[in-house]
Amino acid sequence: MIIFVSILFTCSIYAEDKPLIREIIINKKDSVFRHTFYYDESRNKAMENRYYLNGYTIFPLSRTEWIYEDNKCVTQREQVWKNGVWKTIHLINSEYNGIQKKKEVYVQVTDGIEKAEKDVVYNYENGVLESILNSRLNKGNPDITQRISFNYNEKKQLIRQTIMSGNNALQPDTSLMVRYVYNNSGSPDSVILTNNIHETKINESLTLYFYDKVNGNMTSQIHKKWNIQTSKWENDTKIEYVYDHNNRLIKELYAHYTTLFWTMNTMYEQIYDSNGILLQKIMYKPIYNQWRKIYTIEYIGTENGKPNLMESKYNFWGGETGQYVENFIPYYFNDEIAIVNADRMEIKYNLETTITTNILFGTDRLKIYPNPSNGVFYISLEDSYIQHWEVYNLNGEIMRQNNNAYRTGVVDLTGLSDGLYMIKATTDDNKELKQKIVINKTK
């Protein structure tokens, strides 16, 4: 059975002075997956392709495309490879009021027929988010299924979040309330979770946060549960954090409460090089009254100041020493912290200093990238709506053509041989744009 891991499904914009991730290879047990990423001229993530690798054979799995207007993501399209063609299965269409998102519509697509299933409406007051309404769409009419409301203090810090769900989310029988308290430094001091059932408040959980008074680093957090019989908070779990002299996190210790004592159950250790780059993350368990290594995530090699090869392997007390073990591996996806479930992963970056490399110049040139490419290109949608495109070889023969049934920038020429081609695209206002493109599968 093939299981693929999605990296990110969000619209993202990245800093201009850093190379961007173009490919991630994920090893998961006996399966190997390849994720490729494309960005537009504004460094917005425009497309992610996911493949399953079997030796030298590549099998397409799925694709996500993000379409932008004025640097705001207006459409997210999910596609799967089925019976030799890409088929759209889901859409998320977004509307904005200035820079603030005001609505999302989730659409299911079956055999090319679109059906709006739910929408999410965002309401603002004085520039901050006041509520989120989730609705099922019944014959085009919204039935509100969840309302999330937000309350803030004078510093615009979130102090209360209320989640009301059910058939009538505006006047529900039950709701969930999360209350936030801050210390004098503005950091979270406590979070209390309360259930309201038929207008009766029932405490659920309390989380307390503690900090170093000198540098402000969080030193521990304690999670408590409410005991209905005694009407008291009782200790449940605890996490302690240890830092080095450079304020880098080096240890996390996890414990659970048993009767009268805290019992340590897990420890994570992080080891850095002299430049502060993470080298290892080691998980320990208490065995025979000593911390024993279970597995190690190694961060090997460095590119653009970040590790580009990560491997998760057993230590002696976890399994066969050196054997790969599936794990949740934290890493940096460009400027964002992400986590992938794998036993090994490799990251490759764009080599070009700019996202778009074009060969033809002039008013009729087509903006397409990356160029050269391994066979999948992306047309810039900033200036034009491409309705039709054709690809010619050096003899002038049409090798591939497509009529776009919807707005998209994808040009998939995977089946063509390496070489130089010409692509001609027609816009919605009948302009013809051209560009020489190069396919190089070793890229």
Brief descriptors of the model:
443 residues; mainly beta; Immunoglobulin-like; 22-stranded antiparallel β-barrel; four-stranded antiparallel β-sheet; 65% strand; Secre_tail; Secretion system C-terminal sorting domain-containing protein
Characterise the protein shown here.
This protein is mostly beta strands. It contains no helices and 31 strands. It has a domain of 72 residues: Immunoglobulin-like (Sandwich), CATH 2.60.40.3080. The chain is globular, with a radius of gyration of 26 Å.
Question: How is the topology of this model organized?
Answer:
Blueprint: E1 21-28, E2 31-39, E3 45-54, E4 57-69, E5 72-82, E6 85-97, E7 100-110, E8 113-125, E9 128-138, E10 141-152, E11 158-165, E12 174-182, E13 188-197, E14 200-211, E15 218-227, E16 232-243, E17 249-258, E18 261-272, E19 278-287, E20 290-303, E21 306-314, E22 327-333, E23 336-342, E24 344-349, E25 368-369, E26 376-379, E27 386-392, E28 398-403, E29 410-412, E30 419-427, E31 432-439
Antiparallel strand pairs: 1-2, 1-24, 2-3, 3-4, 4-5, 5-6, 6-7, 7-8, 8-9, 9-10, 10-11, 11-12, 12-13, 13-14, 14-15, 15-16, 16-17, 17-18, 18-19, 19-20, 20-21, 21-24, 22-23, 25-26, 26-29, 27-28, 27-30, 30-31
